[in-house]
Amino acid sequence: MAYETFAELLEAACEHGSLARAALAQEVVESGESAGAVRARLTGHLTVMRDAVEFGLNGTARSRSGLVGGDAARIDAAQGGPLDGVASRAIAAAVAVAEVNASMGRVVAAPTGGASGVLPGVLLTLADERALGDDAIVDALLAAGAIGAVIASRTNLSGAAAGCQAEIGAGAAMAAGAATELLGGTPEQSGHAASLALQGLLGLVCDPVGGLVEVPCVMRNATGTAVALSAIQMALAGVRFPIPFDQVADALASVGRALPVSLRETATGGLAITPAARALVSGGADPATDISGR
Question: Domain 6-282 - what CATH class?
Answer without folding.
Answer: mainly alpha
